Amino acid sequence: MQRAAGKNELFAELANTFTPQLFDTLRQKLVTLWQGGTAMTADTEVKTLTGESRKVTVSFAVCPGYEETLAKSRGFFAALKLDFLEPSLPPPASR
User: What is the pLDDT of residue 95?
Assistant: First the structure.
């Protein structure tokens, strides 16, 4: 997803992949936790190491049994890549 040559390159340059939209999403995650929420999913954007924008879905959830302490949670990024669709076709909802 980030187009890194390897783990070392990814870790060294990871901060460069964050966008203002991702920071907004991460802030919303903190607000969700502060307001007592235990899960959240949001669409946002990151950059590859080469500067290419990627639409992603960010999800997190507090693990069962840790809702009071928030000591354990799981999160993931899922890349949304839709360029396999033919550009001449309308989006599925309008067909």
Answer: 42
